[in-house]
Amino acid sequence: MARFSDKVAIVTGSSNGIGRAAAVLLASEGAKVTITGRDSERLEETRQAVLKAGVAESHVNSVVADITSADGQDLLISSTLEKFGKIDILINNAGANIPDANGKTRTEGGIDTFLKMFQLNLQSVVEMTQKVRPHLAKTRGEIVNVSSIAAGPAAQPQGPYYSSAKAALDQYSRSAAIDLISEGIRINVVQPGFVETGFSTVARGLNAEESANFYSSMGAQPHCIPAGFCAKPEHIASVIAFLADRKASEYIVGQTITADGGSTLVLGFHAHFARKAPKN
Ligand code: NDP
């Protein structure tokens, strides 16, 4: 029997990147999935990717919604219940480093941007957790939150609001995990490093070619990514699936699993050793 047979999952931010890969993986291993995002065309691409993986059309529920709106959150939950009858797994993956309208990205970024960043990367997760809680209590379900290595402890001067929101998400997840485990609900976190997705087109305003160049140049620098390459979305999806699979990870509660090819274990001085010695 496939490991997610009889399970129903909601994967937020599944119109692209990590969420799309997670939705394809869960569905191809038996789950009924609700996929969602604001962009209907990209969401349809995800639906097609799920079907291409051999999943029955009746196992996919596409919902166009803004995860930061109460109506969007309610629609996601009600349509999942209507179509599949229950909820076993919530993957809170939607997130972004939202650019400032004035092009400011560092500590001078506007408070509007700060608020938007927290609304998407933290508040929507808190709200979805509250709303899905009674349904997950019935199924003894799982929540996996997608954070980032930007959460720290290393400083992130190029994105202080995004990284602060992710740091808050990590601490919220730990606290909620201990609060809700008594109801049988298990919460864990994945912290990806560099992953080739649409993230850098949003966060850094790069086009597709610039984005591909950025990821390959980061991957080529061992003092940035010791593994020697940027992750594909599937590398993170497999960690999400592990944490969403109670049989595989039942005794992991409130933990943050870092999947970053070793990036966070490299300190500045390691760069000295990562370079070849200069020729005299
Ligand atoms: P993508 O930009 O490829 O995907 C982001 C997803 O989030 C899209 O499906 C997008 O859908 C959705 N989303 C964004 N804002 C909203 C919103 N307001 N309402 C509903 N959906 C929304 O990026 P990734 O796949 O990389 O990002 C997934 C997660 O991984 C994020 O939480 C990100 O912070 C995290 N992460 C990514 C890293 C990377 O290097 N890629 C590194 C560390 C963490 P749509 O645009 O259709 O609304």
Automatic annotation (TrEMBL):
InterPro entries: NAD(P)-bd_dom_sf (IPR036291), Sc_DH/Rdtase_CS (IPR020904), SDR_fam (IPR002347). The keyword Oxidoreductase applies. GO terms for molecular function: oxidoreductase activity. It holds the Pfam family adh_short_C2. PROSITE patterns: ADH_SHORT (PS00061). It comes from the Eukaryota. Keywords: Oxidoreductase. This is Uncharacterized protein.
